[in-house]
Amino acid sequence: MKPFEFLEHTADVKFRAFGLTPEEMLGNAALAMFNAMIDTSKVREERVWEVDLSGPDLEQLAYSWLSELVYLFDVEVAVFSRFEVHLVQSESEWKLHARIFGEEIDGRRHAFECQVKAVTLHQFEVSHNDHWTMQTILDV
Amino acid sequence: MLNKVNDYIFEVPIDFRQGMRVPGRIFISQDLLNMVESGTIDQVANVATLPGIAKYSMAMPDAHLGYGFPIGGVAAFREEDGVISPGGVGFDINCGVRLLRSELLARDVFPEVPLLVESLFKDIPSGLGSKSRLHVSDQELTEAFLAGAGWAVEQGYGVQADLEHCEENGCLAGADPSQVSDKARKRGRPQFGTLGSGNHFLEIQRVEKIYDPDVARQFGLFEGQITVMIHCGSRGAGHQICTDHLQVLSQAVRKYGIDLPDRQLACAPLGTPEANRYFGAMAAAANYAWANRQIISHWTREVFSKYFGEVRMDLVYDVAHNVAKIEEHDVDGSRKKLYVHRKGATRAFGPSREEVPLAYRSVGQPVLIPGSMGTPSYVLCGQDRALDLTFGSACHGSGRIMSRTQAKKTFQGKQVKANLLKKGIRVMAAEPAILAEEAPEVYKPSREVVDVVHNLGIATKVAQLVPLGVSKG
To answer: Do A10 and B65 touch (CB under 8 A)?
Structure first.
């Protein structure tokens, strides 16, 4: 199973991310989002950031997760390349704890192809059959 | 199937999809319509399903696929039974364009363009992760959220006349900084006074052609003149405000029982707490953007004065092309208060509207249409005809036709830069790869888009501006 795929979209970036578990799907979605901006294989794992989030369902949690990463990218002026996601599901909500690996942006080493401004809810979907899939469009 | 109303108006019939409350109208030529993806027409139809929509769900001739609303979308909602939707404004709240006119002649400036572009690129931070020269406190940020460009002028960035030549005088009423999250403040503070990335730019231009000498005189434009165009918005502050409120309004949709064809159209009925909070936060972001463009204008003037001494650079006008505003319009014979959403569309008020600055009241407001890097920009003049047709709106640019992925496969940033230099256009970019995405060929020809608006009589052509030097994020 490939981790993610980009789909054609005129003005913005559309992708699908996959996983055998929702955790893997969320990690791959984050990887897809940063790969839209930069070759993440060139990003060093120099620092770790931690994120805690919750949401009433997996779909809203997935939106919050990607939006939180855009926020961190912007305020930390950092770029990330590996994501360890842990989920806990209770009756009323989903909780996420993640460790995010990356480094601060270094203009001399990091070449960006675009900048993600935000995650849209347009055609935003999380689905599950024999594996998990999520799809979204990023505003760049 | 679309119904052709006339050469420039195509109607999306009310039975195009289930739930449409009004028909859609696309203001476009047949040639340009052929370049519009079917998804864009679906988006026009989706907007038509929103409660309280007046007249038509509209799209301008630069329409292309967006998220929620199409880019180039215009929709107005009645105060009594309508909604407000962040999907109709976009993430970059009050992304807009302003034009400064100088007294300088292109032939005198031309030799200095390489150095000028370099100075502008250095003095006005652009690109990803760039740090502003400004260090505002949280209190100052609050004041900017409230007062917009007026705050910047008060701090010494510009003059009073700038405010008189700015849509809404550079300040949207009703801003409520208490609805701006800490996250939005954290993103907004360090980016205040930066250009951003993507399609944002600062461009040195030459007035190439005057179409309407009388109006051009009114706007202070003449052939061979140097102008500067600034295109940017509310940076991370606006992006975060939209993200935050989109999540709140997604919940509100369930609470108020609104059936949506697309979740990005999340909205709340006007007058509800959720709608009021979003409007207050959106207005704060709009004001941030106006202050941002004001600060950048001041630094632009400083750079020019380094090279040319005390040179006057007056503001021609400043337009917002991603915004929702309260305006009065005639609907079915009566005057109505409407929330007009313009997403990638420019207000184009004619002489009858009192919102038009006094200096332009006899002709109509300047409508600023940026081209892409290699193609001309246009100054048009808003006409009263637009009030009948489009709630006083026109296009905002040329409109993308090639995806970013395809652009990157087709062009290389370095090559794009070299090709532009051959045409006499000097470009400096923080991220050279982004140049490939913004190659002139990825956009529709700006001339064709502007001709539709002109021929419809929404806004008429005044001047054509060609780029000499561009600083890009």
So the answer is: yes
Which residue in chain B has the smallest CA separation from A139?
A: B91
Of A8, A64, A71, the CB nearest to B240: A71
d(Cα B121, Cα A9) in Å, to the nearest integer?
Answer: 30
Contact B437 A119 (CB under 8 A): no
Give contacts of B430 with chain A, Cβ < 8 Å.
107
DSSP 8-state symbol, B131:
P
Interface check for A64 against chain B (CB to CB < 8 A): the answer is: yes
What is the 8-class DSSP label of residue B45? H
Catalytic residue check, B396: yes
CATH code for the structural domain at A13-139 = 3.55.10.10
- The predicted complex's ipTM stands at 0.96
Least CB–CB distance from A113: residue in B183, B403, B433: B433
- Per-residue b or e along B359-370, where b marks 16 or more CB atoms closer than 10 Å to that residue's CB: bbbebbbbbbbb
B262 CB neighbours in chain A (<8 A) are 121-123
Contacts of B373 by beta carbon, 8 Å cutoff, 6+ apart: B201, B416, B420, B425, B427, B435, B438, B439, B440, B467, B470, B472
Q: Give pLDDT tens digits for B333-382.
A: 999 999 999 999 999 999 999 999 999 999 999 999 998 877 899 999 99
Is A107–B403 a contact, with Cβ atoms under 8 angstroms apart? Answer: no
Q: Distance between CA atoms of A48 and A100, rounded to whole angstroms?
A: 5
- Write out pLDDT tens, residues B158-192: 999 999 999 999 999 999 999 999 999 999 999 99
* pLDDT tens digits, one per residue of A20-72: 999 999 999 999 999 999 999 999 999 999 999 999 999 999 999 999 999 99
**Hey, is the C-beta of A115 within 8 angstroms of any chain B C-beta?**
yes
Q: Please identify, in words, the CATH class of the domain defined by B3-401+443-472.
A: alpha beta
Q: Where are the domains of chain A?
A: 13-139
Asked if A74's CB is within 8 angstroms of B187's CB, the reply is yes
